[in-house]
Amino acid sequence: MSEPLLQRNYGSQFTYWREYPERDIEFVRWYPCNIGKLGPGTVLDAPHRKLDRFVMYLHIPFCTVVCTSCPYNKLTTRNDLVERYMAALRKEIELYAANPYFAGAELIAGAIGGGTPTALRADQLRDMLGWIRDGFRVAKDFQLTVESTPNDIDERKAEALLEGGCDRISLGVQTFHDPLLRHLGRARTHTRERALSIIHTLRRIGFKNLGIDYMMGIPGQTWEHWVGDTRVLLELPVTSFSIYNYLVLPGSEAHFRIQSGSIPPCPPGELVDEMYTHFVDAVLSNGYVAVTQNDFGGPVGEWVDRGARFFPIPNPEGKPYQGMQSAGLLTQLYHTWYEGGETLAVGAGACGTINDYMYLNEPKLGNYMEAIENGRLPYTWGVYVSERERMHRSLALGMKLLRYRRDDFRRFHGVDLYDVFHDEIDSLLEKGLVTLDDEALQLTYPRGWHYIDNVCKAFYSEANRRLPQPSTVSTELLRWQVA
């Protein structure tokens, strides 16, 4: 892009709201944001409609090693704490499974994240997946993703996951360059050799759907590093991959190490943008498809037989880029972001939406476990999502999947999206960030993709503008907000 772009790193500009033409750097993933305190019983004691299907997110807040810049709700593994947490997790699942709201509803997908879920033992993983299947009516084509690092999974754990119904592993590889892994604090968790070895092992054991995560903007990362990582990716037997920006949060270990000079600075934002454009061209030109700005899968032929829907992504070079808009690859995201479906959140600090409430569980482990042990569901913050706010949510989150079909908006809300958001859409059209035709509202490439979070926030209601994302990453902001 010819114009200067905003440096994406929190180390240079800590903010959660930027107005165009400055580029917003907060990753939009939840809506609404205007949360308040929730009293006991609020969410499921309210009148509700019949629930047909839902997805689940389950949070494991433990890692064998905590990375230097990780902002998520996690602790290093301690056996006594883990055992107590797992007991609480089982009871929380049982509390929801016994609630009439979930009677007869089908669990269609799940994701287990953290932390690092595979920091648990093989028997703990097997038990946990058993609790889910014992508690809920699981769909025949149930899709379950479990996050891991290359060093936290072995054949015993992988086999336990397969036996329990996990069909997708997402490996946090981040990079295949060992010096960069040391800058991430990953030297004790894996190496290039270990990552490559475990990828081939997982395929041999039987994981047909395997994903890996990459990071751009790592301290010391160069253009040559990134081109090499992209080349390696295209040679690997993986079916999906995600790329994320490395963020240096003020006060984190990484922030102090960069300030002290013990690790190199992050590459400038302009270079990171060039890395991103190179990556997108490399994968989409090789037959892979875009699901979100960050998530890719393919090649296309792997998804045709699953009924996937594809759409063209116009680009300046006129290359045959394609996007995929269906639940085939990432059912969890499609159901939550695009369809506005219900997500049952289980575990400390987990976020979800059930019975038209957006809610967050207590992030502090002691408080979370105490609530469960006393028979109380652990949600603490949240907000009721009205029909009008559900319309805002459809586009604020649905545009993360790059394109929103007008027929789908009418099906969900009974009205055309342009009739509701004509001012917002006209403004985005004028800026060249979206296109609108009879079929869909779609982000432009590359301009709209670079400004994707500005586009998403254009659909925030007045009650939610300039509020941070409701997650445990911004716990202190949340406590200030709901005080």
Describe the 3D structure.
- With 483 residues, the chain is an alpha/beta fold.
- It has a domain at 36-336: pyruvate-formate lyase- activating enzyme (Alpha-Beta Horseshoe).
- The protein contains 18 helices and 20 strands.
- Helix 3 runs parallel beside helix 4.
- The radius of gyration is 21 Å and the shape is globular.
Estimate the mean pLDDT confidence: 89
Lateral strand order in the biggest sheet: 10-11-9-8-7-6-5-2-14
Give the class-level CATH name of the domain at 36-336. Alpha Beta
Secondary-structure-derived class: alpha/beta
Rounded radius of gyration (Å) = 21 Å
Give the terminus-to-terminus CA distance. Answer: 42 Å
Main sheet characteristics: 9 strands, mixed
Counted by DSSP, the helix tally is 18
Please count the beta strands (DSSP E, at least 2 residues each): 20
The outline comes out as globular
